[in-house]
Amino acid sequence: MAEVQTAQDSKAGGRQALYLDGYSRMLLIRLFETAMHRLFLAGEIHGTTHLTAGQEAVAVGVCMALRPGDYAAGTYRGHGHALAKGTPPEPLAAEMLGRSSGVCGGRAGSMNVIDLEHGLVGCYGIVGGSIAAALGAALSAKRSNRVAVAFFGDGAVNQAYFHECLNMAAVFSLPAVFVCENNFYGEFTPMAAVTAGADIAARARAYDMPACVVDGNDLWAVHAAAEQAVQRARSGIGPTLLECQTYRHYGHSKSDPATYRPREEVERWLARDPLKLARARLLDEGVEEAKLSAVEEETRTLLDHAIENAQAAPYPDPAQDAPTEFSP
Amino acid sequence: MSELEFRTAIREALAEEIERDPAVVFFGEDVAAPGGVFAVTPGLRERFGPERVFDTPISELALIGAAYGAAVTGLRPVVEIMFGDFMGLVMDGLVNQAAKFWYLSNEQGSVPLVVRSAVGGGGRFGAIHSQTHGTWYQGVPGLKIAFPSSPAEAKGLLKAAIRDPNPVLFLEHKRLYSVKGPEPDQEVLPLGRANVARSGSDLTIASIGKGVPDALAAAETLAGDGISAEVVDLRTLRPLDLDTVLESVSRTNRLLAVEEGPRTGGWATGLLGAVAELALHDLDDAWILATAETPIPYSPTLEDAYIPDTDAILASVRSRAGVGVS
After folding, report:
1. How many CB atoms lie within 10 A of CB B228?
2. Does A167 touch chain B (CB under 8 A)?
């Protein structure tokens, strides 16, 4: 009995460490996005950027269920997808800043990050592109016992990509997990106003694909749902659709103050900030305040150094950059 | 001497590459069990199994997206998009994703995929099953576009396309599928190198795909008129082998580009522009034979008049040279 008890304790301890790590990764994404916001306003980040603050639990909860060799495809709101999949913050920040030390050498920018070393096959500036990329990665993954995940927003479920790819993934029982980050707005338009049925998870039934609605602000709920879906995929049973309901704290992009969202709605969601929820639950489960503060401080320091180093890095020199059109 | 049919050449190239490299997979609509609507790929599924050769839903976006996603994660997919006309559906996957990956990723990885399609008029398929999409894609850095003119070329270029680490569009003219020709003397033909298909001294006729056999037939007749026409087979639209064209024009001083497609935005205008830019001093004359600026008509009389075939090339050269004009 004593031995069993110990094993359970150790397992519970392992889970606690896992979620503490997940919390720190969520915090890293939040701090990263806060820094991006500041740097954008300071004119150091160019063009546009789409911040994922508020949606951190989805990317982190899903990626916690993956192995390092698994594949993920993200969206143009993709900083969180990259950080959750393992891209370090410094090369990611350098990419946003257009520096040569960027994860793509400054060639890609905010919307198009690719990090093959960490299994991020790409982030897609076209709504729904990630779904097709993950479908293809799942064809490869099937051969190597890997899993491919597509992250996409509620807007993407009205693209042909969604229907074509979910159908094909189901027909071929591919090891894919389709993760819809339903933040209830496709750009500036409420999801329900442009989505027939307004029930995203229900669409999977037509493809004979299991689906569930998940509280996307609850790290534990996302992780539990993702673990099941990844398990189904890896064991060869087939794909799953997860509709993770969440909310973005900023507007759609940097040009959008998001005045179209009712104030009460925003406040309701802010009260369910995924970071606050995760912190409270960790405290509730016995993680000491001091431990949490230490992890938070460590994450802050990590991010601060990453941003400082990224800012100190040189811009690519057009005279030195000699791109080839084709891979040799 | 044994002869090779164009469709068999394609099938042999596919079979040999699937056999040679376990990463090669081939999929598309009706390509596996039915063997393809132009009977190009029967037997491949039986030989290599459904993991390597399979039929897909009629979902062109998903097909190309799947090919792209598979290619960046280690497979070498060959996809059939049945008719070139359907290539309008898949522009996002090819233009925004596959073509840009090598550059945008800062050369982390490449996208070894091939998209085969049947193209071209003359089959009475009407406006939306007869187009040639090469020029729709020619302005996209990162894509290669191959368009063979003979069975031997089809085999050698397709094998090169499958081995190439970049995305390659492979165009197959429908009127060539049943053409027979000599077996290839080279296993792989490099992408981006044109071929002087016939030597001549008075005029260079540049074309690609079915335009090449048409130009060769016209050159044969023109020889009887006392006009010595050289025929340059471009083989690929991107990369475009300008050097071979420039070298030819430096000897013939006259250039005719024959394109089955509208002049505006076509490859022929780009070719003439480049030759004018780089070798104006070599040129005595340069002109284009292309189609009307309309969709491709259905009725046989209208379609025949629309397409620049051997007779149209002959008439164009004779008129330009003043032969038979009193």
Report:
1. 15
2. yes
Q: Which residue of B has its CA nearest to A162?
A: B62
Is A126 in CB contact (< 8 Å) with chain B? yes
CA distances from B180 to B35, B152, B260 (A): 20, 9, 21
Polymer length of chain A: 328
Nearest CA in chain B to A139: B70
Full set of structural domains in chain B with CATH = 3-182 (3.40.50.970), 195-319 (3.40.50.920)
Q: How far is CA B65 from the centre of its chain?
A: 22
pLDDT in tens, B244-297: 999 999 999 999 999 999 999 999 999 999 999 999 999 999 999 999 999 999
Nearest CA in chain B to A323: B103
- pTM, 2 dp: 0.96
Ranges of H-type helices in chain B: 6-20, 44-48, 60-71, 91, 99-104, 134-137, 151-163, 211-224, 242-252, 267-279, 300-306, 310-321
- At residue B269, φ and ψ (nearest 5 deg) are -65, -40
Specify the pLDDT at position A9: 59
Q: Say if A112 is an interface residue toward chain B (CB within 8 Å).
A: yes
Q: Which residues of chain A have pLDDT under 50?
A: 1-5
Let me know if B129 is a catalytic residue: yes
pLDDT of amino acid A8: 55
User: Helix or strand or coil: residue B166?
Assistant: coil
Restricting to A residues 69-108, those with a Cβ less than 8 Å away from any Cβ of B are: 71, 73, 102-105, 107-108
Structure confidence by residue, pLDDT tens digits, B182-234: 999 999 999 999 999 999 999 999 999 999 999 999 999 999 999 999 999 99
CB count, 10 Å around CB of A308? 12
Residue A164, chain B, CB below 8 Å: the answer is yes
Rounded percentage of chain B residues whose pLDDT exceeds 90: 98
The pLDDT value recorded for residue B23 is 98
Phi–psi pair at B4, nearest 5 degrees = -115, 130
A160 at interface of B, judged by CB pairs closer than 8 A: yes
* ipTM summary value: 0.95
**Tens-place pLDDT, residues A121-169:** 999 999 999 999 999 999 999 999 999 999 999 999 999 999 999 999 9
Report DSSP letters for B219-237, one per residue: HHHHHHTT--EEEEE--EE
Chain-wide mean pLDDT for chain A?
Answer: 95
The one-letter amino acid at B288: I
Contact between A116 and B105 using a beta-carbon 8 Å cutoff: yes
Domains and CATH numbers, chain A: 45-312 (3.40.50.970)
Q: How far is CA A114 from CA A102, A147, B31, B44, B72, in A?
A: 11, 18, 32, 35, 11
* Chain B residues touching residue A129 (CB < 8 angstroms): 65, 92-93, 96-97
